[in-house]
Amino acid sequence: MNSKTTKLKAGNENSVIIVILAILLVVVIAIVGVYVAKDNRGLATFDGGSVTKAEYEVYYKMFSTWLSYYGYDKSVIPYEILVKAAQDELIVNEAKAAGFTTLSDKDNEELESIFGNEDSVKNFQDMGYDIDKLKEIYTRDYLMQDYLEKLAVDANDDDVKAYIESTYGEDEKPDLYEYDTSHILFSFTKDDNTTMSDDEKAELKKKAQEVLNRAKNGEDFAELAKEFSDDTTASEGGKFTMYDDGYTVTEYADAVKKLKKGEICSELVETTYGYHIIKLNDKIDGERVKNSHDRSDYVSNTYLNVHLEKGFKVNEKEFRKAVLELDPDNYSDSSKISCDGTAIEDSSSDTDSESTEE
Fold first, then answer.
1. Phi and psi for 45 in degrees, rounded to 5?
2. How far is it, in rounded angstroms, from Cα 26 to Cα 331?
3. What is the CA radius of gyration of the chain?
4. Mean pLDDT over residues 333-348, rounded?
5. CB of 287 within 8 A of CB of 175?
6. Helices (H), 155-197
7. Beta carbons within 10 angstroms of residue 50's beta carbon
8. How far apart are CA 204 and CA 25, in angstroms?
9. Cβ-count burial of 303 within 10 angstroms (0-12 exposed, 13-18 middle, 19+ buried)?
10. Nearest to 243 by CA among 276, 287, 300
């Protein structure tokens, strides 16, 4: 009887212990679940996806200072970054659906050079980045860029032309020429990467003028470029295809547009890079649609508001709370954080007030 009683007591104790352990396990799982949910709660949702806090934190660290530097209103910076994160995911999803599922060898090499470098990884860690999440975003970015480049190459010429024309005023007509130029550059940058003094520039100008005279007297322009040019185009005889798209320094572009086919500019053209001798070999109307910059801009702007077409919705309470957690030095009042991209008046004031969100 006693032995049975003893065994029964031991069985009860074991049952109690099992129950307690089970309860503790449930509590632990619940606690872990809360933290996981906290990191992965949706700050914004859209058809087929969402932007989690964990993703947003990496984007915020990557872009907040950059947007501030370029003059974005403080109140809209968090929203612009949220939109960027959503757009990227939408484009990456589309890229994967189009077959862009693996990185090129070049992309993989670049990724390895970043995340295979202990110093780089340590710097990221010191800056507070989640390395796994950062690497995931870098990988997605490579896929996205490869996809957008393919879209730019495949873009319809008429659509690109219409885009170029749309960027000008109603009374303005864009320059649609392709300018086939050659140039010889006498660089202001010395071999040790320092900039020449005024006296050194004066001596360089004399040398450039002598070569200009030789070109005007009929010497082979390509051979002169190979011998004297400091530009990377020297080996190709100074060949440079130009479009009036804002990507070429103004002095060079203005000089080219004044030339006739086969003409050499009568004077040296000075830019921030140095002295140029410029020749216009040919210009072809309508060929600006081949310009890689315009094609890339067309594709980028086509996707600029893609989130608006995909049911994009901001979870305002969670979004503002996340911003306050990420950047308490700049945001201590959630009412100063825009949730629709509209700047909030006097957003820099009252930054020490209490948050209105719990």
1. -125, 155
2. 36
3. 30
4. 84
5. no
6. 157-166
7. 17
8. 78
9. middle
10. 287
> Within a 13 Å sphere around the CA of 74, how many CA atoms are in the beta-carbon half?
15
Angle of CA points 98, 50, 63, to nearest 5°: 90
How far is CA 160 from its chain centroid?
21
pTM across the whole model: 0.70
Distance between CA atoms of residues 14 and 281, nearest Å: 93
- Reference 68, options 78, 57, 82; nearest CA is 78
Q: Are 269 and 248 in contact (CB under 8 A)?
A: no
Q: What is the pLDDT of residues 5-55, one digit of tens each?
A: 333 233 444 444 333 333 333 333 333 333 333 445 589 999 878 999 999
Distance CA 60, CA 326 (A): 8
User: Do 226 and 178 contact (CB within 8 A), yes or no?
Assistant: no
Sign of CA dihedral 49, 53, 54, 59: positive
The DSSP code sequence of 288-350 is GGG-HHHHHHHHHHHSTTGGGGGT-EE-HHHHHHHHHHH-TTT-S-GGGS-SSSPPPTTTTS-
Handedness of CA 283, 285, 287, 288 (dihedral sign): positive
Cβ atoms 141, 88 nearer than 8 A = yes
Average pLDDT value over all residues in the chain: 85
List C-alpha distances in Å: 141 to 35, 50, 65, 84, 289.
27, 17, 19, 12, 26
Convert the pLDDT of each residue in 60-82 to its tens digit. 999 999 999 999 999 999 999 99
Alpha helices in the chain (DSSP H): 2-40, 53-69, 77-97, 105-115, 118-126, 131-154, 157-166, 198-216, 221-228, 250-257, 292-302, 316-326
Q: Helix (H, G, I), strand (E, B), or coil: what is residue 278?
A: strand
**Angle formed by the axes of helices 292-302 and 157-166, nearest 10°:** 80
Give the tens place of pLDDT for each residue, 230-271.
999 999 999 999 999 999 999 999 999 999 999 999 999 999
The encoded tokens of residue 114 equal: 């970043």
Of the candidates 73, 77, 86, the residue with the CA atom closest to the CA atom of residue 43: 86
Q: Tens digit of pLDDT for each residue in 147-159?
A: 999 999 999 999 9
